[in-house]
Amino acid sequence: MKQFAGNSFTNLFCVSLFAACVALDASSGSAATPVPEKNQSSSAMGNSEAELAIQVRHQLVMLPWYSVFDNLQYTVQGNEVILSGELVRPVLKDEAASAVKHIQGVQDGDDQIEVLPLSRCDNQIRRAELREICSFPSLQRYGTGTMPGIHIIVKNGHLTLEGVVDHQTDKDLAGLRANGVPHVFSVTNNLRVLKIG
């Protein structure tokens, strides 16, 4: 009987706490929502470029097929978003353009994304480069996880490294390792460094 009374009290307490939180959220939500003035311009009501850039980045990194072999870049100019970069899968280009179009505040989108040509040789180079770069202990962290730091772009046997690394030594080491893969015509190291040293 004591256990039943204790459970009833606990359940009643939880339900009361939940109801209080819902009521508090509903009242604060309506008070926090600004009402636009009639003479306020539409650009003032829209997102600023910085907020828009954050939303665009979030939408792009959430794309399900975005991988270490793709490179997506964007530029925000007012309410226009310009997408660029290189992708392996054509469907990802459409998904990126669609995701950006549906962001509140985006009035125009310019899709300049290049879909890389299908090539068995390029696919072999991609896998070999990933193995060569990410198997090295100090570079492993850049090729794993949901957002890899190094992106390996291969087009017709030419390799470009894109992305961000922590140190100049990591950039140099990635370029050195990339040059060690056979059947690559050229290597361009466009990695950006967060810290000097």
Write the SSE topology.
Layout: H1 2-32, H2 42-45, H3 49-61, E1 71-77, E2 80-87, H4 90-101, E3 108-115, H5 120-134, E4 150-155, E5 158-165, H6 168-179, E6 186-189, E7 192-193
Parallel strand pairs: 2-3, 5-6, 5-7
Antiparallel strand pairs: 1-2, 4-5
Please compute the radius of gyration using only Cα atoms: 24 Å
Number of domain units: 2
* Residues in helix, %: 40-55%
Which blocks of ≥5 consecutive residues have pLDDT under 50?
A: 1-6, 9-47
The second-level CATH architecture of the largest domain is 2-Layer Sandwich
Tally of separate helices: 6
CATH topology of the largest domain: Histidine-containing Protein, Chain: A
Q: Separation of termini?
A: 69 Å
**Total beta strand runs:** 7
The residue-averaged pLDDT reads 78
Described by the principal axes of the CA atoms, the overall outline is: globular
Question: What portion of residues belong to β-strands?
Answer: 15-25%
